[in-house]
Amino acid sequence: MRSLASLTRIAAAALIVLLGATLQGNAASRIKDIADFEGIRDNQLIGYGLVVGLQGTGDSLNASPFTRQSLQAMLERLGVNTNEADLNTKNTAAVMVTANLPAFSTQGTRIDVTVSALGDARNLQGGTLLVTPLMGADGEAYAIAQGPVAIAGFAAQGDAASVVRGVPTAGRIPNGGLVEREVEFKLSSLSTIRIALRNPDLTTSRRIAIAVNELIGLPTAEPLDPATVRLTLPKQFDGNIVDLITDIEQLIVEPDLPAKIVIDESSGIIVMGQQVKVSTVAVAQGNLTVTISESPEVVQPLPFSQGETATVPRSNVQVTEDNRQLALVNETITLQQLVDGLNALGIGPRDLISILQAIKAAGALQAEIEVL
């Protein structure tokens, strides 16, 4: 007989399988994974700085006047007079520095920054970013960045060949930013909170409101539009809004997705949603191939005729048509059946794009087609 421990493991494994199948079938998600809460957001920062210490791979000062001006201004602030100096260094590069300021970041918090070359620098490997203020959209400085730049790519060049892998003109400085100013926002002072859906949908917003009202036991949540659910704070959560948001974002809601087909014609990528349906339709697809081959002939003149050698063009044109019979795509119930029916036609993604558009024009496709 099996031990109690082994039976317990078997039962736990079976429960995990059942739960996984249930979640996969319903495609349910937490509210925190499909929506954002008002005020809890990042802020984008940007700055302009200099990277020094490059091994001759920086900006050419003659071709990048902004780098020359920045270098001269920095040296003058440090007490070095460069008005009459002929600067010709290639160890400096002007860069743009970007970062995301997380919500409710306090002074002294470290953040990651991204450094991107602005001039004609070839490589930022081994460079160090000098102190750079990072400003928000309001023009105020919220952080400063400094540190060695780490890049994922590299560049190597010889006399007759060169190798470039990745992007050596862009890199990151982990924890290279230091927050100096906090964004003022008092979450506890709000009397209402708006929940913003990342994929707006009327049905999903209503389901979120229903789930929140069932949790609280009062009609406090109201869907305003496909993208917004307004939550009026109940009295029992007065002053304890963090606990309320924590409970709400863990609620499980099944998002409702529209029937849509997304087509990227440049790359031939086709993405179909689960709700895509097609009525019974017959499809035929044929390829027309035209082949032209040239076989010129050389004509020699007769002896003692004083003629000239001439080339007579000979063209052979062949037309081949691949006639395929009509294929029946039955009315589908699931996405798998639709994919199987279209795969039965034995065609590639390029032809499948045209077939889907033709089925849509015939009124047999119950889905929206979005072409990127």
From TrEMBL:
Pfam families attached to this UniProt entry: FlgI
Keywords: Bacterial flagellum, Cell projection, Cilium, Flagellum, Periplasm, Signal
Main location: other
The keyword Glycoprotein is assigned to this record: no
Position of the signal peptide: 1-27
Record's subcellular location: Bacterial flagellum basal body
Family of the protein in this entry: Belongs to the FlgI family.
NCBIfam families in the cross-refs: PRK05303.1 (NF003676)
Purpose of the protein: Assembles around the rod to form the L-ring and probably protects the motor/basal body from shearing forces during rotation.
Oligomeric and partner information: The basal body constitutes a major portion of the flagellar organelle and consists of four rings (L,P,S, and M) mounted on a central rod.
Name under which the protein is recorded: Flagellar P-ring protein
Species annotation: Pseudovibrio japonicus
